[in-house]
Write a structure and sequence with these properties.
Length: 142
């Protein structure tokens, strides 16, 4: 079996292409990311489902780390932690931090899950994605 110099090729491509964390338009006019990955819908290769899963898992780990900023987060059961992480993933920590009454209900000892669920449903988020908000509120209630 022939071995190809993948490491050498990668180092050369990194040097030539340069790294871009955000989508940009390359010289050929295609939407591109990373080290020259053409993700354009017309002629690009996009990303595979495995690559998307890898990115999602990394994003979940980053989001969990962001949620640990709330001292009470680790005391929640896994189902309710999941709700907080999903909201933080969707909204971002700064916007989720604006859910002051919901977060206050979760910080109580013991947590007030009913109030937290009600406050989640009394939000702009709930008017934008009502089915998702209802599922998360139901999970918050247990």
């Amino acid at each position: 079996m022939r071995m190809y110099p993948v490491h050498e090729i990668a180092e050369s491509l990194k040097r030539e292409e340069g790294y871009r964390a955000f989508c940009y338009t390359c010289t050929a006019g295609a939407h591109t990311v990373g080290y020259g990955r053409n993700i354009d819908a017309d002629g690009g290769i996009g990303i595979s489902e495995d690559e998307a899963d890898y990115l999602l898992r990394n994003d979940i780990e980053r989001t969990i780390a962001e949620c640990k900023r709330w001292a009470w987060f680790d005391d929640l059961d896994p189902g309710r932690q999941s709700v907080v992480v999903q909201l933080c993933f969707q909204l971002g920590a700064p916007r989720l931090s604006q859910f002051k009454l919901m977060l206050a209900a979760l910080s109580q000892q013991p947590p007030d899950y009913e109030t937290a669920a009600d406050e989640l449903l009394d939000s702009r988020f709930a008017t934008q994605v009502p089915e998702r908000a209802n599922r998360l509120a139901d999970q918050m209630r247990g």
